Amino acid sequence: MKDFMNITKALSDETRVRMLMALRGGELCVCQITELFGFAPSTVSKHLSILHQAGLVESRKAERWVYYRLSGKGAPQSVRSGLSWMSKAIDDEERIQSDAKSLKQILKMDPSELCLRQCPK
Fold it and tell me: Structural domain tally of the chain?
């Protein structure tokens, strides 16, 4: 029951749902997610931490950057079902489509430059 409650808590916030929808296309650096939403890196990290605790996303660190992706086939059934339901339920929402267009532009940017701009030393 605790896992289910963590998932529903994570999905109860529009920003976190939008982040999950952005991750459907594959792994993103925190800097790319920060650029997409225009939030402070600390705000993005807090949202990603909640998603991670719920098991909805996985992360990896490469040098000084952290990358996130949706949890895969090894995730519990409740996580896979929640992600599938969410994706089907809101795929055609205007906000999700707008995020997808913005993300396409962000993905054209040099990731190293973007990350240095978002997270300077």
Answer: 1
- Whole-number Å distance between alpha carbons of 51 and 26: 16
Q: What is the pLDDT of residues 29-40, one digit of tens each?
A: 999 999 999 999
Residue 42: inside a domain: yes
Report residue 97 as tokens. 């489509």
Residue type, 99: D
Strand 65-70 with 57-62, pairing: antiparallel
pTM, whole model, 2 decimals? 0.92
The pLDDT assigned to 116 comes to: 72
The string of pLDDT tens digits covering residues 85-115 is 999 999 999 999 999 999 999 999 987 788 7
> Which residue segment(s) compose the domain that 30 sits in?
2-116
What is the C-alpha separation between 95 and 107, in angstroms, rounded? Answer: 18
- DSSP code per residue over 15-74: HHHHHHHHGGGS-EEHHHHHHHHT--HHHHHHHHHHHHHTTSEEEEEETTEEEEEE--TT
